[in-house]
Amino acid sequence: MEKTPPRIVVVVPTYDERTNLPVLVGMLMDLGLPDLRVLVVDDNSPDGTGEVADGLAARSGGVVGVLHRTEKDGLGRAYVAGISRALAEGADVVVQMDADLSHPVSRVPVMVDALFAEDAAVVIGSRYVAGGSLATEWPWHRKALSAWANFYVNAILRLRVKDATAGFKVWRASALNAIDVPSVRSNGYSFQVEMNYRAVRRGLRIVEVPIRFEERVSGESKLGLRVQIESALAPWKLLIGRNRG
Questions:
Q1: Would you state the pLDDT for residue 157?
Q2: CA end-to-end distance (rounded Å), the chain
């Protein structure tokens, strides 16, 4: 008897990504993975990304769905909404992926395979394991900031994850339910850290596979000063919260 393929939902938060989104969706659909869906979570993008997403959905034959949110209130909130929708609609596997083409689409099947072959709860597309790399276009200070952020997070939380701030992940639905995603409060890029922290605290298996992280193709990075400050404080909030509990 042939095994039923897992229902895979790729959750893609968007804000002003009208140029990149159609390219990403096309590349995902070209993978040929059975029962793969894409859920775009748009935060009322002023550049019309939401309308572009609706057009892609209308032409996709049910492969693309769109969740429209009324305001831009952070990457973490968008992911909580998107992951919650994916789980409610019966996803077996949920992929977290940026819309800016910095995450290599070709690694999605590799990460899904690793999820089951390694009996993992989550597979991280990692820049810092053997074989992983950062975009050559990144200036030295940006590379240094990324490396320091991972060292900083691991020094405080002892996650033993080489790329603790990575945003390219493949999760089992059971793991997402176990860590209670709707109760995650971190926002911005610190959302990724809290998700890892919750998985580690529950003894869930985390596997990292190497990726080459590319510079965004078009548009502007959302990594502003406010996000950086929030990300710096997040590990301490998690640690203090654990000690209080």
A1: 85
A2: 48
Q: What are phi and psi of 97, to 5 degrees?
A: -150, 140
Whole-angstrom Cα distance, residue 82 to residue 174?
16
91: left (phi over 0), alpha (psi -120 to 50) or beta: beta
Residue 206, phi then psi, degrees to nearest 5: -110, 130
> Tens digit of pLDDT for each residue in 10-53?
999 999 999 999 999 999 999 999 999 999 999 999 999 999 99
Amino acid letter at 7? R
Write the CA distances from 166 to 99, 128, 172, integer angstroms.
Answer: 14, 10, 17
Phi, psi of 11 (to 5 degrees): -95, 120
pTM score? 0.89
Contact call for residues 127 and 205 (beta carbons, < 8 A): no
